[in-house]
Design a protein that fits this description.
The protein is built from 2 helices and no strands. It is mainly α. It has one domain. Helix 1 runs antiparallel to helix 2.
Length: 67
């Protein structure tokens, strides 16, 4: 149960970090000229950051239970 809680919390923390990074990407990529590219890059950023957050949270959970 604890592993699931850490995984969900890590995924959402990573996804929200990805949303913050996507704000920077929106300033870099011209949304008027390349709307599909902007959507794809923002979606990939959020998904990858969410997965990275999930993996990192599970590593933290594993370290805390092995003490």
């Amino acid at each position: 149960m604890r592993k699931i809680q850490y995984g969900i919390a890590g995924f959402f923390a990573g996804a929200f970090t990805g949303l913050l990074l996507s704000l920077v990407e929106m300033r870099i990529i011209n949304g008027q000229k390349h709307p599909a590219r902007l959507f794809l890059i923002v979606a990939l950023t959020v998904i990858l950051c969410g997965i990275f957050g999930l993996m990192k949270a599970l590593q933290i959970e594993k370290k805390s239970t092995n003490k």
